[in-house]
Specification:
This protein is mainly alpha-helical. It has one domain. The protein has 14 helices and two strands; from the N terminus they run ααααααααββαααααα. Strand 1 and strand 2 form a beta hairpin. The radius of gyration is 19 Å and the shape is globular.
């Protein structure tokens, strides 16, 4: 395979990994804060080891120059995960994923003020279609359904999406710092920020966690965080922006498929229509950015 084909393979594999995280998180019987902390901690340790093996150099000067943004975005990553995991708890995996994928819409809405980008008629149309999709999603389910509280779960997903959008915008202002180093520092900050909450009230009994749960935790920390982020940033160097944007849609689609196959979470017509509007509008807006 040539460099571009390798990049496509790694990006597709990365999106499949990201798309499967909900299935594993739903199998971990810990609070969202505990899962987020352990994910950040394990992911940080893995990336430090990977950086050492790859002889990755860390630029302390560049880190110091971007320290405020790195700290703020690192905090954002921690809280972003907490809200996403809360969404998994209160609603179906498909609902949580689709509401979380509203993040590009928030970026479009905020870009004119933060990045001074022009809000074109096509982008306004994409925002309106995405909002229509969200409306359909919110009206597709009753507020309380068995073990689920769908409205609450979708709102948690939207909160996670809003924070993720702020991380995307902050990352655009980080200068002279490679993606690997940026992610490593952000994960480290996320672990530090979540540490007090993790031990608040005594924290979970780590010794009492069964082997199966520890297996899921390690998969989320190593595979879904360390390996996935490492593959993501190495593949980005081998692909153009449009390829990255389009391939990223494998993530939510695969998540929805897994929710049906492994969790038995079906989707009705309104949910499917809402998902198509949300994903379709964000895809169209991202394609415009590379034309």
């Amino acid at each position: 395979m040539n460099k571009q084909e390798t990049g496509h393979f790694k990006m597709i594999f990365t999106m499949l990994i990201f798309g499967s995280i909900g299935v594993f998180v739903k199998s971990i019987n810990l609070s969202s804060i505990d899962i987020a902390f352990l994910r950040a901690l394990i992911g940080t340790v893995f990336l430090i080891g990977a950086g050492f093996m790859m002889k990755q150099k860390i630029s302390l000067v560049s880190i110091k120059k971007n320290l405020i943004l790195l700290v703020l975005s690192g905090m954002g990553i921690g809280f972003n995960w907490i809200f996403l995991f809360q969404a998994y708890e209160y609603t179906t995996l498909s609902n949580a994923t689709l509401s979380y994928y509203f993040a590009p819409v928030f970026v479009m809405i905020l870009s004119p003020w933060v990045l001074k980008e022009k809000l074109t008629a096509k982008k306004i149309g994409c925002i309106l279609f995405a909002m229509l999709g969200l409306f359909l999603l919110l009206n597709a389910e009753t507020q309380v359904d068995g073990d689920f509280e769908h409205i609450k779960g979708i709102l948690y997903g939207l909160l996670g999406a809003g924070i993720y959008a702020s991380i995307v915008l902050m990352n655009k202002f980080i200068k002279d710092l490679p993606g690997f180093e940026t992610t490593l520092i952000q994960l480290f900050v996320a672990a530090l920020i979540l540490l007090p909450s993790f031990f608040y009230g005594g924290g979970p009994n780590l010794i009492g966690i069964d082997i199966r749960t520890w297996g899921f935790i390690l998969v989320v920390g190593i595979l879904h965080t360390g390996v996935a982020y490492l593959l993501y940033f190495t593949s980005m160097k081998e692909l153009n922006g449009q390829s990255v944007a389009i391939l990223s849609y494998i993530d939510p689609i695969f998540a929805v498929v897994l929710s049906v196959l492994f969790l038995g979470e079906g989707m009705n017509v309104l949910q499917v229509m809402g998902g198509v509007f949300i994903l379709g509008s964000t895809l169209l807006s991202q394609r415009e950015a590379f034309v």
